Amino acid sequence: MIEDLIPALAELRAARPAYEEAEMYREGEAPEKFASPAIQRALRGGTKDFAVNLAARPVDAVLDRLEITGVVCTPDQHTALFETAVWEANELDIEYPEVHDKTLTFGDGYLFVWPSESSRDEEADGEQVARIDGVDIFFNSPLTCRAIYDDENPRLIRLVIKAWCRGDGKETETRVNLYYADHCEKWVTRPDSRGKDEDRLTAADFEPYTDEHTDEQGHIDNPYGRPPFFHFRTRRPYGRPVHKGAYGSQDAITKLITNQMAASDFAAFPQRYGLLDPTAGSDDDIDWGDEDETEPEDRDSQLVASPGSMWNLRHYKEVGQFAPADPDAFLKPQGQFMRFMAATTTTPSRWFDPSGDVPSGESLRADDAPLSKKAKFIARTFGATWKDAFEFALRILGATAKVAVQWAPPQATDDLEFWQAVQARQDAGVPVRQTLLEAGYTDAEVTAWGYTEDQPNGPDWSRPSREEPPIPVPVPPAPPGDDT
Fold first, then answer.
1. Element (H, E) at 206
2. Phi and psi dihedrals of 231, rounded to 5?
3. Torsion of the alpha carbons at 188, 189, 194 and 196, rounded to the nearest 10
4. CA 48, 49, 55 angle in degrees (round to 5)?
5. Which long-range contacts (CB under 8 A, 24 or more apart) does 185-194 make?
6. CA–CA separation, 414 vs 407, rounded Å?
7. Which residues contact 108 (CB under 8 A, 6 or more apart)?
């Protein structure tokens, strides 16, 4: 379906600048901005060594609250398969934080799920059958991938394009893969089109790309009925970087810090001046012979800065130095822009300025409430995507199961005030199981402690756990001679 290639490639290319900008601010590589073109020309090539990257903090703040504590499969018999063939085989305990980090940075990202390279077709009863012994899960950046959604159903992915370049200069070739619900296509630029700018490529510049996995047309069958990509995003349809609101404040802070460091040179080495005495003669009375080849003004100063020394300044009426810039002119605006950054990114101010008092207990939870609410929403969004990806991975492995992803609570729950509030809720009649789940413990943990759905308040220890045999009652012996 070559007619899909060029429009999808154009859409991917149009989206890249925003993703590159998001990555630049996440990594602290945003250049200093100038309101005046003249100043920009004068300071071109300045150093970035003093860059302080605060725009990354909103990403870190949410990332710290997205911890997967467990994955439960129903029926439970597939849990062991999931843990070994999916989670451990793909090192997801290491990979999933990277998936979250990149998605929060770019606003969205893609998880590719497909049978592993070790899976091959085999002969069985004279027919080729797939032997699936593993599944691969890879993250793909939105710089190289983009989902194209159906016009009528905005939740249905019609196709996914993945494009990248290989080689350099005139030998650069563009590789493009298109993923549909029933097949995948591989394309590559023709030899006579290599080195051509990506925005000038047309359908005529591409030909099928073949390898050991494709047929002669560059096609691969997809028997799973959906594109093998899962779209992580902070919002629909293509997400928004969680630190996007920090761009402007970061530009201002970068400028203030850079200017402050430039001003610090003048604080350490003040700029000086000397006022000449208009009544003094121009002869400096220095014994300068004809054999001297240098001019007097080119000779090194004979004035030495040392304790107890005396400087004899000829022809100067007065000397002095210019006062350096006041540090408050830079420090106070920095604090203001930090507060702007906190407000525009829904991040507590202490993430940007650790010099203040850190709240604790209920004050800390109140301060974190907007951030925690945002983290809960993103966890629900990411959790739904993880669920679909994991169920698809199990399906590839031949198992049909429902998957539930469990998350750590986004707020701290280890202080005395919190547990006193939990106790108060229990005293008011809220089941113990419910309060423990709200505190962030997993369903498996709470159930293991005896707080089940049937017994939400735990076992009733006032009753024996099993039937006890009745205690025999002694019967007194009958009196002698009594036949009854």
1. strand 206-208
2. -95, 105
3. -120
4. 70
5. 185/1, 185/218, 185/219, 185/220, 186/210, 186/211, 186/214, 186/218, 186/219, 186/220, 187/2, 187/5, 187/218, 194/167, 194/170
6. 17
7. 142, 231, 232, 233, 234, 238, 239
Radius of gyration of the chain measured on its C-alpha atoms: 36
The backbone torsions φ and ψ at residue 163, rounded to the nearest 5 degrees and listed phi first, read -135, 140
Tokens of 4: 């899909």
Quote the CA–CA distance of 379 and 90 in Å, as a whole number.
Answer: 21
Please give the Cα distance from 55 to 251 (Å, whole number): 9
Q: For residue 480, which phi and psi values (nearest 5 degrees)? A: -60, 140
For 451, the token pair is: 């707080």
For residue 196, what is the DSSP state? -
Per-residue pLDDT 10s for the chain (484 aa) are 689 999 999 999 999 999 999 999 999 998 887 776 666 655 555 556 677 899 999 999 999 999 999 999 999 999 999 999 999 999 999 999 999 999 999 999 999 999 987 656 555 555 656 667 889 999 999 999 999 999 999 999 999 999 999 888 788 899 999 999 999 999 999 999 888 888 899 999 999 999 998 999 999 999 999 999 999 999 999 999 999 999 999 999 998 888 888 788 777 778 887 788 777 765 554 555 566 666 655 666 666 666 666 677 777 888 888 888 888 888 888 889 999 999 999 999 989 987 767 777 777 778 888 999 999 999 999 999 999 999 999 999 999 999 999 998 887 666 677 778 888 888 998 999 888 887 767 777 788 888 888 888 888 755 555 555 555 666 666 666 655 5
Beta bridge partners of 72: 404
Contacts of 46 (CB under 8 A, 6+ apart): 32, 258
- Residue the block writes with tokens 């497909």: 114
Residue 464 φ/ψ, nearest 5 degrees: -65, 150
- Residue position matching structure tokens 């959604």: 149
Amino acid residing at 343: A
Q: Which residues make beta-bridge pairs with 402?
A: 74
Are the C-beta atoms of residues 66 and 377 closer than 8 Å to each other? no
The residue whose two tokens read 């309060």 is: 435
In terms of C-beta density within 10 A (0-12 exposed, 13-18 middle, 19 or more buried), how is residue 75 classed? exposed
Q: Report the alpha-carbon distance of residue 435 to residue 438 in Å, rounded.
A: 5
DSSP code per residue over 63-78:
HTT--EEEEEEESGGG
- What is the token pair recorded at 387? 């669920």
Map residue 21 onto helix, strand or coil: helix
Q: Tell me the backbone φ, ψ of residue 227, rounded to 5 degrees.
A: -60, 140
Q: Are 51 and 254 spatial neighbours (Cβ–Cβ below 8 Å)?
A: yes
State CA 300 to chain mean position distance: 56
Query: pTM value?
Result: 0.79
Tell which phi-psi region holds residue 191, choosing left (phi > 0), alpha (psi between -120 and 50) or beta.
alpha
